Amino acid sequence: MSKERRWCLRKNMSLNVDIVCNGQSDILHCKTRNLGLEGIFVETNNTNIKEKTPVKVMFPQTDDTDPEQQQILASVVHSNDQGIGLSFRIQDISTIRFMRKIFYKQK
């Protein structure tokens, strides 16, 4: 198992997200356990996903200002019988803004 390197705080929050593994058509419907600006832990029954597997995390619309579901690329950093830990691969400033919006909006 690889050692996690977190550069920001994680916040416990429960959100419905969908995970799509690279090259697969199956969608995993998951709930987040915690979230940070650089990563997320999702609860899932499918823990056969290997470390370093690229995935797409699909967040639902947060409000009427979001035109569509936000998709963020990530990599699996660890998995256990409770779920998988993902590290985001930030593509642009809009992704950072979206994550800040979710992180600071949720109680």
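Above is the first protein from milestone M3; the second protein from the same milestone is given next.
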Amino acid sequence: MITTREIPEKIKALEPFKCYAVMGLMGLRCVGVKKQNFNYVVYSYLTPILELTSKGELVFFNNLYYSKTTSEIQNVIAEMFKLPQHRNKKVYLKKDLK
């Protein structure tokens, strides 16, 4: 198990990790069903909050409010990728973040 401070390094490297209720791993894509490929997904309490392609490209960022802990991780991810933190709480697809 890693610490919260180590999460950004693991995400940038697309490496699997577990940090209490947060985990990152390669798995079948969450968004869409057009392609059967593996993407990197970060979960908080089994809720997907970030999905990246196997090349590290953003697929979606879930900024909905679930809990204080999830919000802390969402803020870390938003800062890493320069994503919205305080805009409307919603799920942002890649096209929404341009």
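Note on the second protein: The beta strands are 17-19, 22-28, 38-44, 47-52, 58-62, 91-93.
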